[in-house]
Amino acid sequence: MTEPATPIYKRILLKLSGEALMGDDAFGINQATIERMVGEVADVVAKGVEVAVVIGGGNIFRGVAGGSAGMDRATADYMGMLATVMNALALADAMNKQGLTARVMSAIGIEQVVEPYVRPKALQYLEEGKVVVFAAGTGNPFFTTDTAAALRGAEIGAELVLKATKVDGVYTADPMKDPTATRYTHLTFDEAMTQNLGIMDATAFALCRDQKLPIKVFSIVKPGALGRVVCGADEGTLVHA
Ligand SMILES: Nc1ncnc2c1ncn2[C@@H]1O[C@H](COP(=O)(O)OP(=O)(O)OP(=O)(O)O)[C@@H](O)[C@H]1O
Ligand SMILES: O=c1ccn([C@@H]2O[C@H](COP(=O)(O)O)[C@@H](O)[C@H]2O)c(=O)[nH]1
């Protein structure tokens, strides 16, 4: 059977897991991995899709880890947000090297490093075909970059939030812990929330549900999966209203 090759979305919000940037390393950013992911993004941009990215920080620091080690939780969360800024800089650098034009916009003020998030400016960049990388999550502690993806996705009028992660969809339980877990092809936001499926936090699911913004969870490790998702192929799990 031939697969669809034409994008069915004009504008997408791609949430890239920080952990996925590690590749097979134990910490940080694996250069070959980030270059491969950027190659996948470049293929989608070349098809005419407007792409905004929210990058996670789990490969460097998570606030919850600092909090459980005794740190003030809000302080630890600000460290986590700064970790996403580092990932955003690395990602934009790799994008620019592969011929894309990337702009990093931060939700917290660090103007000497990257420009602040200003919605009309972000929309302008997208219309110009630039890739916008949203850094520092929502800018608030006690949130996650998944919620930032839902928030920015709604703000920019994305048609789909793509959660790119190390697993290939939403499972009945965490597949890293339960080998008997099975994958959903699709499920509703309410089902995801009532079953407490840990793939995304409830705040992100609730925001997308209220805005009728579907989420596709798929593997960024699988070559070509991003391109197949934007063309509407059967890939990953769709979470919908
Ligand atoms: N029901 C489930 N279905 C699929 N994955 C699940 C489920 N419950 C928990 N998970 C776990 O959720 C993880 C989500 O990964 P991801 O790395 O995207 O997390 P994140 O916290 O959003 O990212 P980051 O690394 O940027 O902090 C997967 O690695 C998977 O092990
Ligand atoms: O809006 C936000 C987004 C993130 N954080 C903190 O950053 C880290 C890394 O983000 P991940 O979503 O886990 O990749 C997160 O653990 C939080 O500590 C935040 O505070 N607010």
How would you sum up this structure, described in words?
By secondary structure, the protein is of the alpha/beta class. The protein has one domain (11-240): Carbamate kinase (3-Layer(aba) Sandwich), CATH 3.40.1160.10. It has helices at 31-46, 63-68, 73-97, 119-127, 145-155, 189-194, 202-211, 225-230; strands at residues 11-16, 50-55, 102-106, 115-116, 131-135, 160-165, 186-188, 215-219, 237-240. The chain has a 9-stranded mixed β-sheet with strand order 4-3-5-2-1-6-8-9-7, with helices on both faces. Strand 1, helix 1 and strand 2 (50-55) form a beta-alpha-beta unit. It is globular, with a radius of gyration of 17 Å. The two termini are 29 Å apart. 44% of the residues are buried. The mean pLDDT is 97. Bound molecules: adenosine-5'-triphosphate and the ligand O=c1ccn([C@@H]2O[C@H](COP(=O)(O)O)[C@@H](O)[C@H]2O)c(=O)[nH]1.
Keyphrases for this structure?
9 strands; binds adenosine-5'-triphosphate; binds the ligand O=c1ccn([C@@H]2O[C@H](COP(=O)(O)O)[C@@H](O)[C@H]2O)c(=O)[nH]1; 8 helices; 241 residues; alpha/beta
